[in-house]
Amino acid sequence: MSGVRQNGIAAGRISPAALSENFSDAYPPFSAHEALVAADRCYFCYDAPCITACPTEIDIPLFIRQIQAGNPEGAAKTILKQNILGGMCARVCPTETLCEEACVREAAEGQPVDIGALQRFATDTVMDKGDHPFTRAEPTGKIVAVIGAGPAGLACAHRLAMHGHNVVVVDARKKPGGLNEYGIASYKTVNDFAQAEVEWLLKIGGIRIETGSELGKDYTLGEIREDYDAVFLGMGLSGVNDLGLEGADERVDDAVDFIATLRQTKDLAALPIGRRVVVIGGGMTAVDAAVQSKLLGAEDVTIVYRRGQERMSASEVEQDHATTSGVRIKCHAMPRRAVAGGVEFEYTEDGPDGLRGTGETFVLEADQVFRAIGQTYEGWHGKSVLELERGKIRVDLEGRTSLSGVWAGGDCAFGGEDLTVTAVAEGRDAAESINRALMG
Amino acid sequence: MADLSSDFIGIKSPNPFWLASAPPTDKEYNVRRAFDAGWGGVVWKTLGLDPHIVNVNGPRYGVVYGPDRKVIGINNIELITDRPLDVNLEEIKRVKRDYPDRAMVVSLMVPCEEVCWTEILAKVEDTGADGVELNFGCPHGMSERGMGASVGQVPEYIQMVTEWCKAATKMPVIVKLTPNISDIRYPARAAMAGGADAVSLINTVSSITSVNLDLMAPEPTIDGKGSHGGYCGPAVKPIALNMIAEIGRDPETANLPLSGIGGITTWRDAAEFIALGAGNVQVCTAAMVYGFKIVEEMKVGLSDWMDEKGYSSISDFKGLAVPNVTDWQYLNLNYVTKARIDQDACIKCGRCYAACEDTSHQAISMSAERTFEVIDEECVACNLCVNVCPVENCITMEKLSPGAVDLRTGETVVPDHGDWTTHPNNPTAVAAE
After folding, report:
1. Fewest 10 Å CB contacts: which of A361, B76, B368, B386?
2. Does the structure show a pLDDT above 60 at B9?
């Protein structure tokens, strides 16, 4: 027996047609007229709060005005010169906690200008045409190694290429893109957008990508420091936090692995999922894993978070997306141990010394358990050669590490939120610092 | 409940909302639908001599859009009726017979020869129509043939033709004026001198609404070429209001009945025209954009507002705003106001700051926390901040009471009226008695 009510972990719970529908664009793009109507709501604020709220400081009122004026290509250039991954950020940014939260129309009427969707409209217009609006400066003869082809590495590489440097980007995985390719829910980036964006970005020229090569395993930092004029580290977080679950067994999977596998799966009907799924965590990874479990045909999906719902790092919009997708969010509970057919949780409460268990427990039936309680930086030498700060690479304001000639940015570096847009900003700014150092 | 019935120069209609002479009143079918929808009257689309004129077979309208494709203005290059005269006359007769309580006015445009006017007036009179409107307004097409606006732009011609018509018919004669002149008072006076019972205004404004940058041709484009058209709709309402007021406050034409036309879309627009002296109003663009049903909103809205204000009939508030339209030189220079920003209502967009700092008097300060405050020492009360603020009533103009000091000028506000005519800087000032 297959279908939604089959116990255990099984593939093909719902029809291919339903799967195709479930994994289509969750937020379909604006038509040209919808974009004009949305753009007309922008007040073109003076020294606009939305710009300040954007980690890449895109001139949002200007690009929206360019859309209003019938120049979406110009709008795209305004976006992309600040954020070369503006297309992906338009899809995955938690705009409700960034630009749209700062929008004065959010303050005025609780309905911000739809900045994210407008950004997508503009960037899609340019990328659908295949236009790349930037050109390279005269060649400098310098060559820079970028480790990691995720948002930070790609942004860094592109900015370096613009300045005329040659760049080699090395990534451990099979495909470039980093979390854009492996770490984001499918329905946010349909039609293989992450790869299309990388291909488009590379049109600048001067960037070579090598995949399947891992720092510390296939080559050392010392080697590349000798071979290149500068090094940028943007390899993200490869470790996953443990639950420390008593009696943990093979039933506890990493949510990040699940999301990556799902993104790389051609035939979703062949991807197994539990009838009853429990996701432990409170961030966007937890939401992405839970929602996609539901979309694959899991009957009951529960996110369990140890603190109150207001403390979840997933935004309210993400939480709403989860609950309207049929995911249950259960708060103030932490896992104790695996039991037959499920997981035992203990209720929690906030005490004077922080969170503590109440001693009261309950059991959630679960065929499959995902952990999504954060990722960690893992040095590739066992003992890191770089100074760390709270487990991540220590960098200064320009992205310089404790080693000369080595910069870092994105999730592996300390500081900033672990967001695509933050990684882009850090990669871009590190490239400017590298350029100054090389050309100084 | 307020009485909306209208008696305009003896032409009675159940309400003051008429459809203007234009495509909506081109033929029996449309006019019957209009009357069934509740319109008080129509001015039938302009009749001319046979052989009837022809229209272009490409687009005849172009528009200017506001947000969300909202039509702000329409430009047209349509000419007068392109159907035989007899057909129109028969239809007018039938419709008037079936709708005796509605106003049926017929618009006319024939060459500037007395016999042309005399003959057509006799035919119109036979239909039982309530009156005629002489089309001296259309700025396109017909004006190239010496009719329409080319008559309306020469006061002597207006008077001459009006005299012919008044001599030839017992029907009331309304003269429709073109706004494409420098001072509307001269054509209005000429119409009055010719014996016109009323003037109606405005007709359309000569315009090119847009240029097709691929074809390098004006829109609407006919086989690669365009011709200026006549502009109408909400965009021209301010021009129309001023012209109505100019005629209403001109002592020579103060008693000349006015039919207000120009962008009237809602009851409020109509009330504004009537407040400036219009005896009734004519509508076209709003009906062309939204259909005849809009008259329901207009009737109910006007009636409700009149009830609220205690006006029982249209004449109760007709012209009440006219005495308050004056020349700049009589405006009270001792009336001093300052902008005030309601910090609770402010959404911190900074548009007031950008407008004042870049284009006005640097009279608004901005703090690091985006608090915007008026600097009284600099504020000239220009109102631009009020106008650009997206939040209604967030910024207002507050009057300084007599005795208060205007921090910009250092002068104490006085209670008396003081205007340019007595200002010391005016070389022709008359010393106060």
Report:
1. B368
2. yes
The yes-or-no answer on residue B356 being catalytic is: no
Phi and psi for B194 in degrees, rounded to 5? -80, -5
Q: Which CATH architecture has domain B6-324?
A: Alpha-Beta Barrel (3.20)
The domain made up of B328-422 has a fold known as Alpha-Beta Plaits (3.30.70)
Q: Which CATH architecture has domain A32-129?
A: Orthogonal Bundle (1.10)
Q: How many CB atoms lie within 10 A of CB B101?
A: 11
The answer to whether B350 contacts A48, with C-beta atoms less than 8 Å apart, is: yes
Measured between CB atoms, does B354 come within 8 Å of chain A? yes
Q: Lowest-pLDDT range, A257-266, A370-379, B117-126, B377-386?
A: A370-379
Question: What is the value of ipTM here, to two decimals?
Answer: 0.88
Percent of chain A with pLDDT over 90: 85
Confidence (pLDDT) at A374? 84
Which of B69, B347, B354 is nearest residue A46 as measured by Cβ atoms? B354
Which CATH topology does A240-374 take? Answer: FAD/NAD(P)-binding domain (3.50.50)
User: Nearest CA of chain A to the CA of B363: how many Å?
Assistant: 15
Question: Residue A50's closest chain B neighbor by CA?
Answer: B349
Nearest to B236 by CA among B98, B83, B108, B63: B63
Show which of residues 96-155 on chain A sit within 8 Å of chain B, judged by CB atoms. Answer: 104-105, 107-108
What sign for the dihedral angle of Cα B418, B423, B424, B428?
Answer: negative
Closest Cβ–Cβ partner in A33, A44, A108 for B347: A108
Domain A143-238+377-439 falls in which CATH fold? FAD/NAD(P)-binding domain (3.50.50)
> What are the pLDDT digits (tens) for A167-202?
999 999 999 999 999 999 999 999 999 999 999 999
Query: Which residues of chain B lie closer than 8 angstroms to A49, CB-CB?
Result: 348, 370
In chain B, which among 48-107 make CB contacts under 8 A with chain A?
67-69
